[in-house]
Amino acid sequence: MTHLVFFEKPGCGGNARQRAALVAAGHTLEQRNLLTAHWTAQSLLAFLAPLPVPDWFNRAAPRIKSGEVQPDMLERDAALALLMAEPLLIRRPLMQRTDNGTRHVGFDTAAVDAWVGLGTNPASPRTLEGCASPTERCADPA
């Protein structure tokens, strides 16, 4: 199938389920730590630029959930600077196909299926994005 670079938060249960779905569909993954990657404005925008600024953000991040950071109120340059300074705020996973270089943000099942193929069935969840339940927390990064 396809080889993907998969930027994730280590210890995140949601990212683990996403990886499992990709591997079950026959894809291979090169896992990278989203939090310690050396992001530049150009490298991050390669993923994020096609999306509206609010869609760049991980809505489960503590500073967003508390209301301290309000993605809907941020302009592009301020949002980009904030994400580079605090990668925990970046919506994940970030994925890149190694065969054609296309990139994808987040894990809406239908969108990922259309992008690389998941072999999903109607009984599978519409999205594997984020945590499975409001009470599930991802482990803190090591």
From TrEMBL:
<comment type="similarity">
    <text>Belongs to the ArsC family.</text>
</comment>
<dbReference type="InterPro" id="IPR036249">
    <property type="entry name" value="Thioredoxin-like_sf"/>
</dbReference>
<dbReference type="InterPro" id="IPR006503">
    <property type="entry name" value="Nase-assoc"/>
</dbReference>
<dbReference type="InterPro" id="IPR006660">
    <property type="entry name" value="Arsenate_reductase-like"/>
</dbReference>
<protein>
    <recommendedName>
        <fullName>Nitrogenase-associated protein</fullName>
    </recommendedName>
</protein>
